[in-house]
């Protein structure tokens, strides 16, 4: 007796294949959600996207800061600036020796000492490559412009320092040499798989070598897809005024500003 052949299954319609309710959430975030699966594995698209994101993160770590372009932009805006370098001679040493990224080289100390203003600056801004020069190259200038507009007019702002191979603590030595009351580090954060260009802000009152992370305030994920420039500048200006009034920063200084939420 011959077995009856079953008719072939009708192909799935586009709606049956693509109408995944989780996919609708992806337009609200660049986070890795709704990846889907094929059997016990991720889909080919998800695997390829992961590989691309990983490559972008690695590239961001190794991409050098274009100091010439940054200083030229500051010159065009008539903003005094000085370029410095940490004690890490190159990127390889910077990544292997975080301690070298926290101290200036000898030539930079001399350059900063010569640029020290006669009167102590109320704040000095440092644009530093950190672990993502891409973030600094892209976001530091517009954030600086937005922040300067929000500071008291009577405040003295020191020369902007552009730092290569820099860790956060390098700002302590920079601020100390320039005699600044406060220092603000605008530095590239460690890249993630959805954010290779995230900029971090670190505020330290009374900068000097040896300050700890508990004595700083941090604002993170500054970029158009994260915390926008205007809202980050509002928070930073609020903290700068608060630190000046309190006489210290870090765990003693709380961010009581209005939460930065998207309009609507």
TrEMBL record:
Which pathway does this polypeptide act in?
Answer: Amine and polyamine degradation; ethanolamine degradation
Q: Which Gene Ontology cellular component terms are annotated?
A: ethanolamine ammonia-lyase complex; ethanolamine degradation polyhedral organelle
**UniProt GO BP:** amino acid metabolic process; ethanolamine catabolic process
Q: Which reaction does it catalyse?
A: ethanolamine = acetaldehyde + NH4(+)
InterPro entries membership: EutC, EutC_C, EutC_N
Details of cofactor binding: Binds between the large and small subunits.
Q: In its keyword annotation, does this UniProt entry include Lyase?
A: yes
Q: Where in the cell is it found?
A: Bacterial microcompartment
Q: How does it assemble?
A: The basic unit is a heterodimer which dimerizes to form tetramers. The heterotetramers trimerize; 6 large subunits form a core ring with 6 small subunits projecting outwards.
Family statement drawn from the similarity comment of this UniProt entry: Belongs to the EutC family.
Q: What does this protein do?
A: Catalyzes the deamination of various vicinal amino-alcohols to oxo compounds. Allows this organism to utilize ethanolamine as the sole source of nitrogen and carbon in the presence of external vitamin B12.
Q: What is this protein called?
A: Ethanolamine ammonia-lyase small subunit
Gene behind this protein: eutC
